[in-house]
Fold:
Amino acid sequence: QGGHITRINLRTGERRYLSPEAREGEARHRYNWNSPFFVSPHDPSVIYHAGNYVFKLSQRGARWQRISPDLTTRDPQKMETVGSNAETHCTVVSLAESPVEKGVLWAGSDDGLIHVSRNDGGEWANVTPPEVGGRYICRLVASAHVKGRAYAGVDGHRSDDMDPCILATDDYGKTWRDITADL
Structure:
């Protein structure tokens, strides 16, 4: 929760805190209550993790590097919060790597942006289609079968929009189509 992840040595019980923290003089990282992280399907010693930035943790979390700019709207009216990380806004809430293409990363934010990197975080493209309309990107899934294909779940219930919205792309987000059908 709130970006906190820990590695535990089950043999010795030793715990190591892995979450990236801002360096001295930098603004704090914003983490969502349910910050996304996963082990790369291409390299089990690599973990990807996100707050308002995407981080790549290597050597099973012993080293980390920020591999993206802030991938949110950075709306000052929304991102400054008081309390727990449950109230933090302008954060990446969905993160995925293509299982068929190493280094193709997808990131979706709680303030309605979708980004893709085709070179392991070296460059990011905002590929948000207009259908998103600023709504929460609740899920991004990279296809396990087709390069360039991904699916996005868009959730508007926080703004009283109860209509389902599922989008798909076959060209790394250049174009999207609505596949909601009769949900």
Summary: The longest helix spans residues 76-79. The CA atoms of residues 31 and 51 lie 4 Å apart. The chain has one helix and 14 strands. The helical segments are 76-79.
